[in-house]
Amino acid sequence: MKYLTGFHAVTSRLRQKPDTVREIYVDAERKDARARDLRELAKNLGVRVIAVDMKRLDGMAGGVRHQGVVASAEPLDMPKFIEDVLEALTEPALLLVLDGVQDPHNLGACLRVADGAGAHAVIAPKDRSVGLTTAAIKVASGAAESVPYIVVTNLARTMRDLKERGIWLIGADDSAEQTLYNARLEGAMAMVLGAEGEGLRRLTRESCDLLVSIPMLGAVESLNVSVASGICLYEARRRRL
Description:
Layout: E1 2-5, H1 7-16, E2 21-27, H2 33-44, E3 48-52, H3 54-61, E4 69-73, H4 82-87, E5 94-99, H5 104-117, E6 121-125, H6 134-140, E7 149-152, H7 155-164, E8 168-172, E9 189-194, H8 202-207, E10 210-212, H9 225-240
Parallel strand pairs: 2-3, 5-6, 5-9, 6-7, 8-9, 8-10
Antiparallel strand pairs: 1-4, 2-4
């Protein structure tokens, strides 16, 4: 069993996989419309809702902000290997590769934009990455259970394997001369992004087929990685539409 925290994550799981939710714990003091709607949804789906005090919710959430709601649920059986994801596709792959993202809020937001843009998976290295923590899952607002998060031991080797499968690797780099909007974005591809501030590591950058920059027209020099991921993925999706 695992704990889901926050209204978005709990409601999303209820709507997608209600049979995997064992119980929902709600702050006994919450009588507002949002809490009533959640109770009603759970009741209609046959899921038990238990009123508890905030101290118990805090313990379940492990320090993550929970908004007064925590659900006990079964872990979803998501693909663990990129090969499984690719073999099940019926359209050219659209992937997000994250190199060195260590903030759980950034990861959660990246998963959310990946879901919105219709990306088929998010890939990250085992080392120097935050992993799918409770905080990341909460920020993802259900996307952590709809977009496979694939953890790999050797990112450079995985990128080589993707190339061999005909997937074009496009890295976002502030110093790239070609912009995202001028780049050729066709067929199967993976958008490769690094952590804010550090950017792509050297080996990751060298493993890309193409480097592009996002035009920056204001005073700031760079964007949060989740914002940059959204711009890149949605531009790739727009070209397909």
